[in-house]
Amino acid sequence: MASHESLLPLRLITIIGSLNADITTYTSRIPSGGETLHARSVKTGAGGKGGNQAAACAKLSRTRNDVNNGSADIRMIGAVGNDQHGQLLLNNLRASGVDISGITIQTEIETGVAIILVEESTGENRILLNGGANYSLSPSLFVTIPNPKPSLLILQLEIPLQTTLQILKAAREAGIEILLNPAPAIELPAEAYANLRHLILNETEASILSGYSVEQIKNDSLLPIAARVFHSRGVHNVVITLGSQGVFYSQDAGLSGFVKAKKVEVVDTTAAGDTFVGAYALEAVKVDFDIDVAVRKANAAAAKTVGKRGAQVAIPWADEVGPI
Ligand code: ADP
């Protein structure tokens, strides 16, 4: 007989956001102005915070051999150009188990591209982003949230801000729970936070949006006070990620905690935050959501991503994540 769990309807998670081709060059050092330098290697991969978070939700709810049978339905809404980069992104998301029927292919504008220079001696990177088709997502497309209505909507800040604000308004009106990952951070109007179910941000974003310095955010005793700034604006669950240090979480009802990062060998931290968001989201749609469990699972999943080069390709499948 089927288990009780298998009789429950799948929860739909919709991600609206950016899709970028990451063109990463690896170099011994960053060239100076006017200088031409040979890169050691170059790789083109699927990226963009929206796409990464969709891939994370899908891969973390499936095993590689069971890509069509995840425990959640994951739908991506975004835009690419009618070009090779667009095809790469669509193919990659489909292979991860993401429903790509909400992705528009634009004929007049190219796919978003991130040109990344990684200096191998320091691991430091420099990124130039061309938004391309991501900027064709206009507010008028989101007067209402596209059907089917999700249990959870995930947003970042790599599409036009006015569009994100319109989506937040439409989702609120429809009573849809929202997870906002305000990256890259820009000042947001007060209404963006009102009745927001989940806010996940790193220390830099927390600093820009709370007004506390990064040093203050990293201070154990000030961290809960910085989180309170977001609760006072209307956020229910605040999660601040602190890279190799760990993760702080707090709920408006008063529960808070700190989870230490896993000790792992770091190869490339790209998409660590996006993996974290995806893993957390899979817990957030459960009826028995427990923020401590969600953060521990997300922390374990993100630790896997830092051990591999690249963005979506580095995100683990469900069976690759270690214990929490
Ligand atoms: P972002 O990638 O958005 O800048 P962070 O750097 O805070 O965000 O990383 C997000 C999460 O990824 C961390 O909270 C942690 O769980 C994991 N992580 C990041 N860097 C490391 C690391 N060096 N070792 C272990 N886990 C890490």
TrEMBL record:
Cofactor detail note: Requires a divalent cation, most likely magnesium in vivo, as an electrophilic catalyst to aid phosphoryl group transfer. It is the chelate of the metal and the nucleotide that is the actual substrate.
Tell me the residue numbers annotated for binding substrate: 20-22, 48-52, 158, 274
Q: Where can this protein be found? A: Cytoplasm; Nucleus
Domain of life according to the entry? Eukaryota
GO BP terms: namely: D-ribose catabolic process
Cofactor annotation: Mg(2+)
Q: What keyword terms does UniProt attach to this protein?
A: ATP-binding, Carbohydrate metabolism, Cytoplasm, Kinase, Magnesium, Metal-binding, Nucleotide-binding, Nucleus, Potassium, Transferase
Entry-linked InterPro entries: Carboh/pur_kinase_PfkB_CS, PfkB_dom, Ribo/fructo_kinase, Ribokinase, Ribokinase-like
Q: What EC class is this? A: transferase
Q: Where is the Carbohydrate kinase PfkB domain?
A: 12-317
Q: State the pathway, as annotated in the record.
A: Carbohydrate metabolism; D-ribose degradation; D-ribose 5-phosphate from beta-D-ribopyranose: step 2/2
Its catalytic activity?
A: D-ribose + ATP = D-ribose 5-phosphate + ADP + H(+)
Which SUPFAM superfamilies does the record associate with it? Ribokinase-like (SSF53613)
Query: Recorded E.C. number(s)?
Result: 2.7.1.15
> What residues bind K(+), as annotated?
268, 270, 305, 308, 310
Q: Please state how the activity of this protein is regulated.
A: Activated by a monovalent cation that binds near, but not in, the active site. The most likely occupant of the site in vivo is potassium. Ion binding induces a conformational change that may alter substrate affinity.
- Recorded GO terms, molecular function? ATP binding; metal ion binding; ribokinase activity
The positions annotated for binding ATP are 202, 241-246, 273-274, 299
Query: Where is the major localization of this protein?
Result: cytoplasm
- The answer to whether the entry has keyword Chloroplast is no
- Active site per database record: 274
Q: What does this protein do?
A: Catalyzes the phosphorylation of ribose at O-5 in a reaction requiring ATP and magnesium. The resulting D-ribose-5-phosphate can then be used either for sythesis of nucleotides, histidine, and tryptophan, or as a component of the pentose phosphate pathway.
Give the quaternary structure: Homodimer.
Q: Which family does it belong to?
A: Belongs to the carbohydrate kinase PfkB family. Ribokinase subfamily. Belongs to the carbohydrate kinase pfkB family.
Q: What is this protein called?
A: Ribokinase
Tell me the organism: Pseudogymnoascus verrucosus
